[in-house]
Specification:
The structure is a homodimer. By secondary structure, the first copy, chain A, is α/β, with parallel strands linked by helices. Chain A is 39% helix and 14% strand. The structure holds a DNA duplex.
Chain lengths: 369, 369
DNA sequence: GTGAAAGCGCTAACAA
DNA sequence: TTGTTAGCGCTTTCAC
C-alpha cells in the first residue's frame, strides 16, 4: 500500500486534499507545508521541492476561505458597475481584469443595473466576502453615500470610478468630463454652429453635471448665450436621445447641432432624425461624448470625445491596490484622465450660414491636459 | 457605561463586530445568535428580534469565509466567459446576475480573453474560492477538457454554455446553432441566391461547427452543391470578416450572399464591401448569426438569426443551481434553445437573376422548434 | 530550518 | 428553546 494515489482519508467528509494530508505523508508539519507552498524562505529548497511535487501530484487546491480567515485578507477586489452591456464599461472592466491578474488579485464583479437598492446590497455582500478593496461607479440615482462610508469605517478602501460621489475622503478616478465637453462644444462652434442643444443626463450625476458645465463654459467663452430650453435632462440611453430629439423638434427650437452626453443618446437622436427625414449632418449636426467600437461602421460615423476607458480601469485598480498596501497613512487622491476629440463625419463642415470651417482654427487633434 | 455604541473590544485586532460580541452583550450563546440571524425556527421570535436589533445597531456584517469554512458551501457560482465587451455575452451575463440575485447566490465573473491559459487558471481559482458551481463558455482554442474534469472530481457541478465541449457528463445549455444556420441559409436561397459563401469561425469551436453544418444541410436540401472554397475558417471578430471578404473578393469567386458566423464578422464584411464600393444588399447580400442592439441603427440593418441570450443565461444558472441542490443523483442534461429569424434590410429581396422573392414562400417568421 | 500551539468567525451535531 | 463541544483549513506567533 505504499504511495497510494492521494491521501488515505478515512473519516473525512470532503474529498479535498489538505495541507495536513501532505504534511503527514511527508512527515513534516502543516506549517512547513504552508510555508513551502507559499515559497517562504524559511524552508529549504529541498523540502520545498518535495512538498510542491506531492501537492501537484495529489492535485492540491488551496482553500481560500480558510486562508482568508486565518490571514485576514483575501487578495480580492470588489467592483460595482451600473451596467455591463455598455460600450463604455466593457473595456474598462477588461482593463481591470488585466491589472488584477498582473498583481495576483481576484476581481468580483457585480452589476447594480442602475438600482440604488442593488448597489447597496452589493456593498454589503462585498464586505461580507471580506474583499480587500472596492471600486464603484455609482448608479444614476445614487445620492446617499452612507453605505460607502460604512466600507471606509470597516477599513476597506473604496475608489470611485467615472461616476463619482462628491464625498470627500475617497479615491476617485475620472475622465476629464468638463474639458471633453468643452472641446466638443467648441468644435461645434468652430464649424459655425450658433445654436447648440445639449442632451444631458440626470441632473445630479457627476459626469452629466461636469459635461453640462463644460458645454456652458464653451458657450460663454464664445459669447453665445446659454439657452436653458435647449438643455434637456433625462437619461443616458438611446431612448432618452430619441425622446430628447422629439422634444426639441416639437418645440420648434431645433438647433444646428446637438451635443449628446453619451453615445447611446446620440444613436437615439440619429434614429429620431432619420425617422423625420432629417439628414445628418446636413440638416442637423451632432457630436457626442464617448463612442462605441461600432461607430466606425455607422454612416455617418459620429465625431466624438474619446474616453480613456482602459486607463480608467487600470488606474482605478492600481490606485486601489496601492491604497490596500499602504493602508496606514491614507490620503485620498483624485486622478483626472485626459480625453481626446476624434473627428469623423459630423461636426466637421462649415454651416451654410456660418463662416468657412477651419478658417484660422487649428485642425490639430490631441490629448488635452 | 451601559450600552456603549458597539462592543467593547479590548485585545482584538480587527474592528469587526462578531457573533460572539452580540452573544456576550445579550448573555446568550454564539449559536443562538447564529441561528437567530439566519432566521432558524429554533429560536423564539422574541430572542430573534432582540438579536437582530442589536446586530443592526452595531452594524454587524457576516463573515462569509468563516461561514463557508464551517458549512462547506459558499452560495457562490463562478462564471468564465471568453469576452465581456461582446454584443452576445453582455445580456447573457446580465440575465445570470438576475437569476443569481433571485436565488440568493453570488456570482464571480471571470474573463478568459480567449486565452486557454487564463481559462485554466480561472477554473483553479474558482475551485480555490470554493464556489458551489461553475458555468463556462470556452475560448475559441480550448481543446483539452481535463481541467473541467478536475472540477467534476472535486464535486463541483460544471455547466457549459453556448460554446461547449464535446465531453460527456456535463450540463450544457446551447442555442440551436444548427437550426439557426439552416434557416438563415434557406432564407438566402429563398430570395434567389444560388452562391452563398460562409465565413465560419474556428474549425473546432462548437458553435462554428454546428452553424457550418446547418449551412451545409440547407444547401443540400435545396440541391445546391457545397463549394468548399466558399467556406472560410478564421475567427469571430470584425477583422476576420474584413479579411474573409477580401479573400473572397480576390479569389474572384464572389458569391451572391455571405452568411456570417457572428455579427461582428458581418460588420467586417460590410466595412470591406463599402471600401470597395460594393453596395449591400444590391451588389452583395448578407445574413448573419446573432446581432447587436446597435443593428437597428445600421443602414442597411442586417437580417439575422436572433439568439436567446437572456434565456441562455437564465437557464445556465437555473440548471447549475438545480444540480447543486440535488448533487447526489446527477444526470447531465443538454438544453437546446430555439433561435429566430429576424428580417431587416438584407436577404429580403429577389436576386435579379433569380426568381421573384417570396413567391410561394411563407413570410412567416417564428420560433423554430 | 522546522514545528507546536493558538485562533480566525462561523456552523453542525448533539445535549440539556 | 437554548447551549456545549468540536471542528472547518489555514496562518501567525514564537519556541526549539
Amino acid at each position: 500500500m505504499a504511495d497510494p494515489i492521494g491521501p488515505r482519508r478515512s473519516a473525512k467528509k470532503s474529498s479535498q486534499v489538505t495541507m495536513d494530508d501532505i504534511a503527514q505523508r511527508l512527515r513534516v508539519s502543516k506549517v512547513t507545508v504552508s510555508k513551502a507552498l507559499r515559497g517562504h524562505p524559511d524552508i529549504s529548497a529541498e523540502t520545498t521541492a518535495k512538498i510542491k511535487k506531492l501537492a501537484r501530484k495529489w492535485g492540491y487546491i488551496p482553500n481560500y476561505p480558510a486562508r482568508n480567515l486565518a490571514s485576514n485578507h483575501s487578495k480580492t477586489i470588489g467592483v460595482i458597475v451600473p451596467k455591463i452591456a455598455h460600450y463604455f464599461f466593457s473595456p474598462v472592466i477588461e482593463a481591470m481584469y488585466d491589472v488584477a491578474f498582473e498583481n495576483g488579485y481576484e476581481l468580483i464583479l457585480t452589476v447594480s443595473q442602475e438600482s440604488v437598492q442593488r448597489e447597496q446590497k452589493h456593498v454589503e455582500t462585498l464586505l461580507s466576502m471580506r474583499v480587500d478593496g472596492i471600486i464603484v461607479s455609482v448608479t444614476q440615482e445614487t445620492r446617499d453615500g452612507s453605505i460607502f462610508q460604512r466600507a471606509k469605517q470597516r477599513g476597506v478602501p473604496l475608489t470611485f470610478m467615472d461616476r463619482v460621489m462628491d464625498d470627500e475622503g475617497f479615491n476617485k478616478i475620472v475622465a476629464d468630463d468638463f474639458g471633453g465637453a468643452f472641446t466638443a462644444t467648441e468644435q461645434a462652434i468652430r464649424v459655425g454652429c450658433r445654436t447648440i442643444a445639449h442632451l444631458s443626463g440626470n441632473r445630479y450625476l457627476s459626469i452629466a453635471r461636469n459635461r453640462l458645465a463644460g458645454y456652458k463654459a464653451a458657450l460663454k467663452k464664445h459669447e453665445i448665450p446659454v439657452s436653458e430650453d435647449r438643455i434637456l435632462f433625462s437619461g443616458l440611453s438611446d431612448d432618452d436621445g430619441y425622446a430628447g430629439f422629439q422634444s426639441l423638434y416639437e418645440s420648434k427650437r431645433m438647433p444646428e447641432c446637438i451635443f449628446c452626453v453619451t453615445y447611446p443618446v446620440a444613436l437615439g437622436v440619429c434614429r429620431a432624425a432619420r425617422e423625420r427625414g432629417m439628414r445628418i449632418p446636413e440638416d442637423i449636426d451632432i457630436i457626442t461624448f464617448g463612442s462605441s467600437t461600432l461607430n466606425r461602421f455607422q454612416s455617418p460615423s459620429m465625431s466624438y470625445i474619446e474616453q480613456p476607458t482602459t486607463e480608467l480601469g487600470r488606474k482605478a485598480l492600481e490606485l486601489t491596490i496601492d491604497t490596500i498596501r499602504t493602508t496606514n497613512d491614507f490620503v485620498p487622491q483624485t486622478i483626472t484622465l485626459p480625453t481626446r476629440l476624434v473627428l469623423r463625419d459630423t461636426c466637421v463642415r462649415s454651416r451654410q450660414h456660418g463662416q468657412k470651417a477651419g478658417v484660422g482654427l487649428t485642425k490639430k487633434v490631441g490629448m488635452q491636459a
